[in-house]
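tmp note - Alpha-aminoadipate--LysW ligase LysX
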Amino acid sequence: MNGWLIYTKADSIRNKSYIDWFIDEAKKQSIYLRLLIREDLSIGINQNKQVIYANGEEIYADFAVIRTMEPLLNKQLEQMGITVFNHSIISETFNHKAYGYLAIQQLGIPVPETYFFPGKIAPPSLPFNFPFVAKTANGKGGKQVAMLHSQKEWEAYRQSLTEDYVLQSSQHIQPGKDLRVFVIGTRIIAAVLRENLNDFRANYSLGGTASLYTLNETEKSIVQTIINAYDFGLAGIDFMFTENGEFIFNEIEDAVGSRTLSKLSDINILEEYVTYIKEKML
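out:
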């Protein structure tokens, strides 16, 4: 069984140890996993046939694990008969915050009060009082997220906009605290609580702390509702907490990393993921 692991060049350098681990776990289960750099690939149509080239050479595989946020790539490989992890629907829906909020709200799961705007278009009047949170729709890892406290800060943020964004109320939500639930397929693997006393963003990469978290039955039910509704491979489902300590949806990480989980536990999430991929391919 042959598969691809697709990264951008910059991310492949930053995640080298993770990539080596992934390839090693695949080898242990008799799977050849080849790293492909996105910048080396050309996808499209040639003589009315969908094709993918790596450095000018036409290539093919049984499956692809795509670690870029590029739904078009996922979609074309699927149409070529290559099984893709994660599915293009996941990439399309959850790598854009507005689409993600719409999808999760349809499942009856609480989401924050949020408004969606394209590009440089600004609301005629702000939908809530300061402070509030502004996020680019495609941002990840807490990047391009700002807590705005004044009209001056809002005006400066507006000038920086070049892509879709969302405005989100910060009322009744605990700052600097969130939860990432790691899932594979329809199975909950583990949950990690992230807290940051110095920033409203709880991301571990931004200086927060992390600890394992045990989901209660209500929380498990919320997560299970999401993973039963979508064809996930490996993903991270992030929740914030209301003032009452209840879950409120934040986002889903399609190309999720597992650095914090590896530090906090002996769970070999890539071994489990490769097993899942193998079962899906048989």
